[in-house]
Amino acid sequence: MAKKIVITIDGWSSCGKSTLAKQLAKELGYVYVDSGAMYRAITLFFLRTNVDLASKKEIKEALQNISLEFIFNSTSGNSEIYLNSENVEYLIRDMFIAEKVSDVAAIKEVREFAVAQQQKMGAKKGIVMDGRDIGTVVFPKAELKLFMTADSAIRVQRRFKELYEKNPNITIEEVKDNLELRDYIDSNREISPLRRAEDAIELDNTNLSESQQFLKAIDMAKEKIY
Ligand code: DC
What we know:
The protein is an alpha/beta fold. The chain has helices at 17-28, 35-48, 56-64, 95-105, 108-121, 134-138, 152-166, 172-188, 210-225, and strands at 6-11, 31-34, 68-73, 78-83, 86-87, 127-131, 144-149, 201-204. The chain contains nine helices and eight strands. The strands form two sheets. A five-stranded parallel β-sheet has the order 2-6-1-7-8. The structure holds 2'-deoxycytidine-5'-monophosphate (DC).
């Protein structure tokens, strides 16, 4: 008999985590949660309200005024994030958020705020969540943990292509610098740094197509489910 499991996907920026997570969720009829979108939406709120990242008081007050929700958009077929009832799914993908999000995500209070909500979302299982600390901190007991990697040059190309479609003024150097900086901050921060959980399976997709990667992952998921 099929049972519901928790699937975690962690890894470096622009490794294709969300692409794979969405495919798995769709195939299995699971909920997909993009935890990075939560840190991005919090960053947007902090920027809009000029929160001083050095002030714990301002951070705590700001967090009390943030409500995050994922709502399924049947047209796009994706869950989209709402910040205080405003759909910010597209806005949070901009470079001005990417430049600040790793600093915001390194703050203890911000992580506690996001992790508590992520754990609630997964309480009933049947979920695929991607991020940096999902297999290590959010769901340490998840049945299937994947850790994705890819060559950094490939990752830069992928992110560049994505951002260029929205902003043709963007340069490949800007994208490369931002990716390297985020990877550095995300893996060197004190709280919940990006790490491969001991029981996570590494998936290097440098030379894998999206469908090859999906087939590998869905096999692993089905093995745990049935
Ligand atoms: O996956 P992404 O690029 O949208 O994530 C944006 C940032 O949020 C990333 O630089 C690190 C941070 N993040 C995190 O610290 N923990 C997570 N679980 C997800 C994202």
